[in-house]
Design goal:
Thrombin, subunit H, Actin, Chain A, domain 4, Substrate Binding Domain Of DNAk, Chain A, domain 1, alpha+beta, 34 strands, disordered C terminus, 28% strand, binds adenosine monophosphate
């Protein structure tokens, strides 16, 4: 057969890879594809084919042979069926991604027996050229239109290098920027689990709670927001499906950032691990950038909530104005307020914020008239929570809660990824860690294998064309066993058991005092988790509550109970101590962790200087003795204090926590009995705080450590957890070295 090849160049009408992926997915198999075109090539023709986006960027290149032709009128779409003989490396990777989407295959794609496909270089010569523009058929990309770019507001204070400010309000987003009063207080109330990885929506209809499926038919939607190459806003499944190719413009895990200060220790750590840009907003909060445009994190949460609202509206065929939204028990005051604001921006009145473990307990106990003590064990994608609750008929009382904000399924994935990558590097002497796309492909395959190992004893891991060595493609091909996985993650599961014990111990309880263990979160499907809990508690975990849906169902049941005579009563506790910063940077708790809500406490302070007219009270939340390790909530500034000798003027400061753990702080002048004029400021920079707490100047800033992680990765270390846990030494590189941002913050605040 002559080796002369005909060159085909196809230019598409769109300019983004995502659209290509989605439109061509039904037309590509591992060994060949259907190429829509008008000027057909004869069967047996050898080709060099190149596909270009409208912006002339080449997106797919390979060599092949025409296997079939499709011409009108028998076929409405003219084109050819090609067998691949060679693809360039980028095309190999893109093809893997497309196959990963698992779109049903069009019957136009030729049925081909497996055959090796070479990796080709870039310098192949074409013999003839055609440049027809085709508009490919295929599924439309679900997008929310985004308006023109917005201008950036100027930051009103000294901001961090490279940080951007966020303009607001932002009419181009499909969000509501009005006040709560403008939202009708009518219609059904939906229950929403706004998750780190996935979110879920439920409603009680005809007295039965049920999940509302997404527009793609799944019971959960990915908590992901993205901009595609054209600047279109994607939410949920479409955002997830383009994540690998567009990681910088894909925001995942925003739940871990929302309501946090940019300068907070957690944000400073996450900032260097996530692929998208985390920036500082004009108010000092953490924000994100999509296509170089700054966004508030509440807007990310609001867009996910808005998608959920729209799904519910379509399902219920009526507008939705009200919701009960769940949050992690450890969420601090700022984070809860941020979720409320996000709900409002999605056009919903948030009737109640409910803690996730409480919601899960409701899903278990609602209407059953129980008298039991439960442990809710919640191991999701990124965090672990354990809570002990007492159910007395329709009263759900949280007794104790604790957890680790940096322990979740992704840590299990990371252990397996490390093992697989080390094995591959040892075997072939090829390093893949530097390439985020390859690492994401490995992560996807490994996570799937991890989930398979919850059902099977072994799982075959195959990541084709992960690298090229001496012109030969290399695959990752190995068999993983459940036994081996268990060994790799044993200590992570042990850590969750240790947290459970600590949560029990806080109330003087032992595992024998627990009547039922309720499982929440996808990672609880792992058999090792079941086994360890069964051993530890002497009974099997409860199986009738769905780990992905329990929280949304519980939120819906709570919503359902509003206005009914057999109303549910929830009694919560404060998950993390709230207190004030003392001179030098020490932390003085005012209300301790596990205090039953609602609660209020007062204490007295006096002026510390003669003729003092201003006084600042800096409020933090956390368990460390050192304010630098805790979350900054705000500064209460007392102004216009009458001039007097030091200590003469005394104030009574009142900390009030409502039943949802929302904080109000007031000050009263004890001499005049007047409530003092106060301003709650949440915008202080570390420099402001250092001045207010009378702390010394820090040494010059050392550059933050950067460290490449898979897209959903995070540092496998515990940080700023609500419970003072014993450090997992091997897992705390930055804390141990005292370097990086964490070390900088510690030095700043003065450990
Ligand atoms: P969630 O945040 O509750 O959606 O949990 C997501 C985490 O659960 C991810 O790390 C998943 O890999 C993990 N997961 C989901 N299904 C399984 C399974 N069958 N076995 C083990 N882990 C799972």
């Amino acid at each position: 057969m002559s080796e002369e090849r005909v060159s085909i160049k196809i230019r598409l009408k769109y300019s983004d890879v995502t659209t290509f992926q989605q439109r061509f997915a039904p037309f590509m198999s591992r060994y060949g594809m259907f190429l829509p075109m008008r000027q057909l090539k004869a069967k047996g023709t050898l080709l060099v084919f190149e596909i270009f986006l409208a912006n002339k960027q080449r997106i797919f290149k390979g060599e092949g042979e025409v296997i079939t032709t499709y011409s009108p009128p028998q076929h409405s779409i003219p084109g050819i069926g090609i067998r691949f003989t060679a693809l360039d490396e980028w095309s190999h990777q893109l093809l893997e991604q497309i196959l990963h989407q698992q779109f049903p295959l069009s019957p136009l794609v030729p049925q081909l027996a497996p055959a090796p496909i070479q990796v080709m270089g870039d310098g192949e010569k074409a013999t003839r050229e055609e440049l027809p523009a085709v508009s490919s058929p295929g599924p439309a990309v679900a997008t929310i239109p985004s308006g023109g770019p917005i201008g950036r507001a100027t930051s009103n204070r000294g901001s961090v290098t490279g940080a951007s400010a966020v303009a607001s309000p932002r009419p181009h987003l499909p969000l509501f920027f009005g006040s709560e009063e403008e939202i009708p207080a009518t219609g059904p109330i939906i229950g929403i689990d706004l998750g780190t990885t996935n979110s879920c929506c439920a409603i009680v209809e005809n007295n039965r709670p049920g999940v509302i499926p997404s527009r793609y038919g799944y019971n959960t939607i990915p908590s992901i927001v993205a901009h595609d190459e054209r600047g279109n806003l994607l939410v949920g499944h479409p955002a997830k499906s383009q994540m690998l190719l567009n990681p910088q413009n894909t925001v995942y895990g925003s739940k871990r950032l929302v309501g946090r200060k940019y300068q907070s220790p957690i944000v400073q750590i996450i900032k260097n691990r996530f692929h998208y840009n985390i920036i500082e907003t004009e108010r000092g909060d953490a924000g994100v950038e999509l296509s170089a445009e700054p966004f508030h994190l509440q807007e990310m949460s609001a867009l996910i909530l808005n998608e959920i609202k729209e799904i519910a509206q379509t399902h219920l065929q009526q507008p939705i104005y009200r919701a009960v939204i769940s949050v992690p028990a450890y969420y601090n005051d700022n984070q809860r307020q941020a979720v409320r604001r996000a709900g409002l921006m999605a056009g919903m009145k948030v009737e109640r914020i409910v803690n996730e473990p409480t919601a899960a307990a409701l899903a278990y106990g609602f209407g059953r008239g129980l008298e039991q003590r439960l442990l809710v064990y919640d191991l999701g994608g990124g965090t672990f929570d354990a809570s002990v609750l007492h159910i007395h008929h329709e009263v759900y009382e949280v007794l104790s809660t604790g957890g680790n904000t940096f322990l979740g399924g992704v840590d299990f994935d990371n252990r397996l990824i490390d093992y697989v990558v080390e094995h591959f590097t040892r075997q072939h002497g090829v390093e893949v860690r530097e390439d985020p796309v390859k690492m994401q492909r490995i992560k996807d395959a490994v996570e799937k294998a991890k989930c398979d190992l919850s059902l099977e004893d072994s799982s075959a891991l195959l990541v084709p064309y992960i690298a090229v060595k001496e012109g030969q493609p290399l695959d990752i091909k190995m068999t993983l066993t459940r036994e081996h996985l268990d060994l790799l993650v044993e200590d992570l599961v042990e850590e969750t058991i240790r947290v459970c014990d600590e949560v029990l111990h806080a109330q003087g309880l032992t595992p024998q005092d627990i009547d039922e263990v309720i499982l929440v979160g996808g990672q609880t499907r792992m058999p090792l988790v079941h086994k360890r809990l069964t051993d530890h508690f002497g009974k099997h975990p409860h199986r009738n509550v769905h780990p992905d849906e329990a929280v949304a169902i519980g939120a819906a049941l709570l919503a359902f109970s509003f206005g009914r005579s057999d109303k549910i009563r929830l009694i919560d506790v404060l998950a993390m101590s709230i207190g004030v910063g003392l001179p030098g940077g020490r932390f003085k708790p005012i209300i301790s962790r596990n205090t039953k809500l609602p609660f209020q406490k007062t204490y007295t302070i006096g002026t510390t200087r003669d003729q003092q007219t201003e006084l600042d009270i800096v409020i933090f939340q956390g368990e460390s003795d050192n304010v630098g390790d805790n979350e900054y909530l705000g500064t209460l500034s007392l102004h216009n204090i009458p001039k007097a000798p030091k200590g003469k003027i005394q104030f009574e400061i009142r900390f009030q926590l409502d039943f949802e753990s929302l904080l109000t702080v007031t000050a009263r002048n004890l001499a005049t009995n007047e409530v003092q004029e106060v301003v709650m400021n949440t915008q202080d920079t570390p420099q402001d705080l250092r001045r207010k707490l009378g702390m010394p100047e820090p040494p010059p800033e050392s550059p933050p450590q950067t460290h490449l992680e898979p897209a959903l990765g995070h540092p496998p270390q515990q940080f700023a957890s609500q419970t003072p846990m014993a450090p997992m030494k091997a897992m705390q590189p930055e804390a141990k070295s005292g370097g990086g941002v964490l070390g900088w913050l510690k030095r700043l605040i003065g450990k």
